[in-house]
């Protein structure tokens, strides 16, 4: 019994050595893959508003901008990842990026978005919003950039061109030029940063589109493809 168990131990040692060797062999193969995965260019996808700040609301549905931004951001992130980017989200849930005890929740929320952007060292920042206007006939997708950033202007132009041709010209009847805006979210990194206002929740036709799964999937694909194109991708 004792002798047999000794033999088993010896077998076990050989097996253990084999397993250890195998683990090393596998890690030797796995490490370069892990390193290259970490080197994927990061795009921060920022779903505007959240928590106590619902943003604007749909004229017919009452849908909250914060929820639509979150859904659109996830779609854009997934499309970007399918094109070889890593998506880093500022918020993944419906809550805002502040603590209940924060006196000024809006500024705490914005400051945290800045922290996440700077930590991510992104190649680009896409902040996702939905628009509103007192004149309900106003519609279409509008891209904003920081006036001090040439790369921001260029990325905004690429995005606006793509959105004009696929959505604004057929739907809104006209294309838009990208506009400069003085916004905190556009100033957190030297990487090109844009705000995409996907459409007007004050316009019933835009609102219907922005609540439609096929339209939002198509819109997200167009945004991701334009970002990829800006960086020389397909
Ligand atoms: Zn907004």
Query: Low-confidence parts, pLDDT < 50 over ≥5 residues?
Result: 1-7, 19-35
The order of strands across the largest sheet is 2-1-3-6-4-5
Tell me the number of helical segments per DSSP (H or I, 4 or more residues long): 6
Report the major sheet. 6 strands, mixed
Question: Quick summary of this structure?
Answer:
With 234 residues, the protein is of the alpha/beta class. It is 51% helix and 14% strand.
Describe the model:
The protein is an alpha/beta fold and 234 residues long. β4 (142-145), α4 and β5 form a beta-alpha-beta unit. It is globular. 51% of the residues lie in helices and 14% in strands. The chain has 2 domains: 1-39; 40-230, Zn-dependent exopeptidases (Aminopeptidase, 3-Layer(aba) Sandwich). α2 crosses α6 and α4 packs antiparallel against α6 (213-230). The protein has a 6-stranded mixed β-sheet with strand order 2-1-3-6-4-5, sandwiched between helices. The protein binds zinc ion (ZN). Residues 48-49, 55, 65, 129 line the site of zinc ion.
Which features does this protein show?
globular, disordered N terminus, six-stranded mixed beta sheet, 234 residues, 2 domains, Aminopeptidase, single chain, binds zinc ion, alpha/beta
Provide the fold topology:
Layout: H1 2-38, E1 42-47, H2 65-82, E2 86-89, H3 105-120, E3 124-131, E4 142-145, H4 150-172, E5 179-180, E6 193-200, H5 204-210, H6 213-230
Helix pairs in contact: 2-6, 4-6
The structure holds zinc ion.
């Amino acid at each position: 019994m004792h002798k047999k168990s000794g033999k088993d131990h010896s077998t076990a040692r050989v097996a253990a050595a084999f397993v250890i060797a195998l683990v090393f062999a596998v890690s030797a193969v796995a490490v370069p893959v892990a390193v290259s995965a970490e080197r994927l260019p990061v795009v921060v996808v920022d779903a505007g508003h959240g928590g106590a700040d619902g943003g604007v609301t749909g004229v017919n549905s009452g849908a909250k901008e914060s929820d639509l931004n979150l859904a659109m951001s996830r779609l854009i992130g997934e499309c970007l990842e399918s094109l070889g980017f890593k998506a880093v989200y500022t918020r993944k849930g419906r809550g805002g990026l502040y603590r209940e005890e924060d006196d000024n929740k809006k500024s705490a929320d914005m400051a945290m978005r800045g922290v996440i952007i700077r930590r991510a060292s992104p190649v680009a920042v896409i902040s996702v919003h939905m628009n509103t206007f007192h004149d309900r006939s106003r519609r279409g997708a509008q891209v904003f950039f920081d006036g001090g950033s040439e790369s921001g202007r260029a990325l905004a132009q690429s995005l606006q061109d793509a959105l004009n041709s696929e959505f604004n010209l057929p739907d809104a009847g006209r294309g838009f030029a990208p506009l400069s805006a003085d916004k905190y979210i556009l100033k957190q990194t030297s990487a090109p940063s844009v705000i995409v206002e996907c459409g007007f929740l004050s316009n019933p036709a835009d609102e219907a589109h922005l609540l439609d799964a096929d339209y939002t999937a198509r819109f997200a694909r167009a945004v991701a493809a334009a970002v990829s194109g800006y960086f020389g991708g397909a």
